[in-house]
């Protein structure tokens, strides 16, 4: 099974159809609107703009598990992302990324280590997982890793479909 087989809804309902991303590189990020790391939306959007034509997308996954920093309704989240950061990349429904109710998408992701060897629970908002065109997790980045950091950009460039 790959992440492309996982069922998850879009932010405003209906399937997010992860299968549509087969053959592409996808940066999955658990996002929140009221977090100190929320300005990372700007860098994520710039990555989307920079690499979209080369078979890449950011996939934002809202989560309210970290100090209630994503309390909004789907419409509020969509409006905030659009008007504040000009987000054009897709957003899924709000999910839980840790605990007994961890969404199946995150069950597939959390076994992958980051550069420091961390596996398991998501540590905070804006933890990032790079998925390769084959659906395998290619890299994991800590929440504090800036989207446009050299390490993230290099990993994306290595993972883009040829």
TrEMBL record:
Tell whether Cell membrane is among the UniProt keywords: no
Where does the record place the catalytic residues?
35
Q: Does the keyword Oxidoreductase apply?
A: yes
GO BP terms: namely: cellular response to oxidative stress
The record's keywords, sorted A to Z, are: Oxidoreductase, Peroxidase
- What GO molecular function annotations does the UniProt record carry, in alphabetical order? peroxidase activity
**Which InterPro entries does the entry link to?**
Glutathione_peroxidase, GPX_AS, Thioredoxin-like_sf
Cross-referenced Pfam families, in alphabetical order? GSHPx
Q: Identify its protein family.
A: Belongs to the glutathione peroxidase family.
The protein's name is Glutathione peroxidase
Q: Which organism is it from?
A: Actinomadura rubrisoli
